[in-house]
């Protein structure tokens, strides 16, 4: 959402379209949507709305709706969205070609030759493109990844599920008034499933149902006959909802497999083929890591491609994309797996241990049982699972039954101690930090991989802002001084341009930092790198006090004076960043800090700054 603030009001539009937070802040655990509730977890806290650590709050918004908004932004930028039937000629500039699939990739002297196929008037046709860079953002089953022979590493087949996307205004209105929530974990003797409420007001839902192949098949959930398809879905929904819905409209049914994997590498073919998003990493859908990590991938990569194509950076800067983003994906994979396993602790407490279910499934799939016909295997599997679901009977799960009382007590403890599925991870959402890449790492910093490999259980840490190289620039409200003083407060994140490549040097109004800022401007001009200087003054500074910036930075004009818009009890900017006012920080176009130093601790300003810009941009001629 912080990144979307820079995309022509996208964040504001999402906020205007998303459901009110009170309708999705809770996860509810129940026997059915109208039956007894085992417990609920509220995942929002007051500090999530006070905009202290970020200028914007989290959002709950469907991916297909987000994609439509992104396409609208592209059209406003002069792009046109074309279906295969609308495409004529061979001029593809500023066109979004829908319905194309990559089928071949071949290196050429100038770059790449990419083959695609598409359906036109009932026939498959092919088209070739010549490009300098191919970004593979084609999802978890990425064809681009397979064509360049990049393997995935991690845990496979954590769970098989069927996803049923459906509409029911009646169900939405009932839950909106009686039991609002985002996720509904439903456990009863007849069925088990997770209902995702995308929009209660519109009655839009996705139901996730576990299944075990090959005994259970996707064909069990779908038929060529549309009437039968609706019947099957209505039966499943009936078992989970608790009453027959008369307005169910099934939109889609898809099987999918939950994996926790990261690509062995992100960059191939001499920095010309690059993987982003689900093509590069596949997480369990536990914590929102998939989409957020993918969007961060694109944000990290975009400024580097732009810098390379404009001649600011060396082609080797593309390698820093993998250096920075892959360790983050590895870390987030571990965290999402731990969060998924926490979700499994709830059915385990109720007497439905998923580990036992998986063991039963493995036994039935073993060579010992392979002698039995598939129909008998399926009958045995479903019979055993039916016996297992009997643990959810009200005869067992009640306070008067000693076993049921014990299980309900265990479940309450899981909820009270925050050991169930979590929605927010502040330290990871905002506090992720690159340890190497297009930055100047501080001495003694540990590599991210060592931290990621030590993740054995979730640690719901708060986000603590800091200004170490590799971290995101902390948010603080500031006011522009001088002629802009009448404007409302804005975030330090807004100092970074959203529509052009520009680096930012943040300093305090002291002699040594002004000197370093002048040297930075000189070196940036030599490297042809746009640079702006921001001088942060204490709260209450007057326009007269800041006139010195113009003299100190002469002849350079690209600077801005701002003051802290802090409350009397708040920390200063330098205290927030855990640094002294003698220090300066250089911020990249993606809002990550590239360099930090003491302004009075450099022997040769120009030589050090040439080294810094060389390291950031992948140039070798000034490296020492």
UniProtKB/TrEMBL annotation:
Domain of life: Eukaryota
Domain FAD-binding: 1-329
GO MF assignments: FAD binding; oxidoreductase activity, acting on paired donors, with incorporation or reduction of molecular oxygen, NAD(P)H as one donor, and incorporation of one atom of oxygen
TM helices/strands, residue ranges: none
Listed InterPro entries: FAD-bd, FAD/NAD-bd_sf, RIFMO-like
Pfam entry (one): FAD_binding_3
Keywords of the record: FAD, Flavoprotein
SUPFAM superfamilies (alphabetical): FAD/NAD(P)-binding domain
Name of the protein described by the UniProt record: FAD-binding domain-containing protein
């Amino acid at each position: 959402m912080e990144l979307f603030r820079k995309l022509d009001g996208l964040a504001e539009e999402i906020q205007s379209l998303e459901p009110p937070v009170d309708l999705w802040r809770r996860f509810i655990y129940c026997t059915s949507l109208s039956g007894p509730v085992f417990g609920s977890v509220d995942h929002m806290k007051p500090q999530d709305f006070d905009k202290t650590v970020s200028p914007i709050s989290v959002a709950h918004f469907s991916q297909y709706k987000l994609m439509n908004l992104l396409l609208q932004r592209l059209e406003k930028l002069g792009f046109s969205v074309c279906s295969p039937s609308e495409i004529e000629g061979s001029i593809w500039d500023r066109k979004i070609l829908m319905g194309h699939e990559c089928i071949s990739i071949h290196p050429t002297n100038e770059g790449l030759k990419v083959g695609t196929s598409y359906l036109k008037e009932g026939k498959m046709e092919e088209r070739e493109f010549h490009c300098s860079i191919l970004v593979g953002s084609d999802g978890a089953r990425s064809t681009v990844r397979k064509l360049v022979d990049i393997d995935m590493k991690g845990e496979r087949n954590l769970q098989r599920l069927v996803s049923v996307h459906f509409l029911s205004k009646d169900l939405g209105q009932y839950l909106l008034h009686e039991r609002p929530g985002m996720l509904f974990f439903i456990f009863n003797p007849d069925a088990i499933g997770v209902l995702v409420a995308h929009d209660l007001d519109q009655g839009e839902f996705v139901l996730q149902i576990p299944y075990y192949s090959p005994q259970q098949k996707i064909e069990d959930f779908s038929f060529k006959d549309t009437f039968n398809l609706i019947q099957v879905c209505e039966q499943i929904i009936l078992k989970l909802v608790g009453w027959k819905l008369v307005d169910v409209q099934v939109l889609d049914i898809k099987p999918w497999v939950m994996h926790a994997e990261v690509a062995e590498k992100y960059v191939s073919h001499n920095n010309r083929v690059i993987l982003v998003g689900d093509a590069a990493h596949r997480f369990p859908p536990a914590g929102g890591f998939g989409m957020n990590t993918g969007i961060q991938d694109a944000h990290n990569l975009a400024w580097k491609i732009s810098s390379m194509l404009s001649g600011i950076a060396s082609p080797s800067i593309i390698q820093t994309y993998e250096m920075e983003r892959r360790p983050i994906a590895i870390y987030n994979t571990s965290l999402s797996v731990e969060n998924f396993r926490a979700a499994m602790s709830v059915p385990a407490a109720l007497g439905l241990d998923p580990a036992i279910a998986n063991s039963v499934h493995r036994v039935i799939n073993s060579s010992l049982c392979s002698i039995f016909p598939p129909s008998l295997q399926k009958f045995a599997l479903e019979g055993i699972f039916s016996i297992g679901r009997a643990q959810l009977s009200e005869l067992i799960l009640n306070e008067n039954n000693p076993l049921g009382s014990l299980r309900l007590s265990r479940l309450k403890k899981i909820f009270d101690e925050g050991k169930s599925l979590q929605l927010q991870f502040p330290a990871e959402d905002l506090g992720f930090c690159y340890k190497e890449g297009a930055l100047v790492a501080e001495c003694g910093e540990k590599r991210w991989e060592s931290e990621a490999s030590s993740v054995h259980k979730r640690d719901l840490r708060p986000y603590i802002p800091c200004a170490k190289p590799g971290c995101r620039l902390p948010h603080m409200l500031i006011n522009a001084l001088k002629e802009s003083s009448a404007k409302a407060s804005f975030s330090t994140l807004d100092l970074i341009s959203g529509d052009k490549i520009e680096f930012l040097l943040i300093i305090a109004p002291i002699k040594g930092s002004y000197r370093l800022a002048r040297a930075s401007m000189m070196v940036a001009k030599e490297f042809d790198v746009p640079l702006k200087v921001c001088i942060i003054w204490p709260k209450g500074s007057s326009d007269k006090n800041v006139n010195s910036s113009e003299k100190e930075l002469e002849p350079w004009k690209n600077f801005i004076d701002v003051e802290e818009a802090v409350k009397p009890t708040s920390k200063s900017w330098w205290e927030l960043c855990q640094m002294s006012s003698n220090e300066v920080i250089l911020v990249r176009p993606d809002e990550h800090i590239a360099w930090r130093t003491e302004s009075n601790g450099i022997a040769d300003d120009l030589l050090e700054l040439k080294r810094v810009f060389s390291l950031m941009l992948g140039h070798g001629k000034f490296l020492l």
